[in-house]
Amino acid sequence: MTQTEKKPIFLNHIAVHVSDLQRAADFYSAVFDLERIPEPFKLGRHAWFSLGAAGQLHLIQNEKSSMQHDKHDHICFSVSSIELFIQKLEAMQVAYENWEGDQNTVHIRVDGIKQIFFKDPDGHWLEVNNDYI
Predict the structure, then answer these.
(1) Which stretches of the chain are assigned E, i.e. beta strand?
(2) Is 16 helix (H, G, I), strand (E, B) or coil?
(3) Model confidence over 50-73: pLDDT tens digits?
(4) Is 25 helix (H, G, I), strand (E, B) or coil?
(5) In Å, how far are 16, 34, 62, 116 from 55, measured between CA atoms?
């Protein structure tokens, strides 16, 4: 296959194991306003959400693990206004921090992009930034 014949590769989905499917689904739905979409398994162990052109987020019910999640391993969402998003987190009483771990503080990258970090109910790290197209 030549360079001009190559087909583009697209992200299909991100799978995240969670200990309490309903709690996690409610969290992702409320925090990110994600649209829940049908999932084919119908086993009560999956919740799928659309990420638009970026693909899908699949939450999968799993046994609770004692695994600690590293901030370097995170999912990032971009929003048009980090300030409005922070107001939403604060209203929901979701703690956030900058990269260094300073509570209720926004990190500003060298390119001027603002970012915050917080955890989902299972301790998975999430980033939200204003690198919005």
Answers:
(1) 13-18, 35-37, 46-50, 56-61, 74-78, 107-108, 114-119, 125-129
(2) strand
(3) 999 999 999 999 977 678 999 999
(4) helix
(5) 14, 12, 22, 22
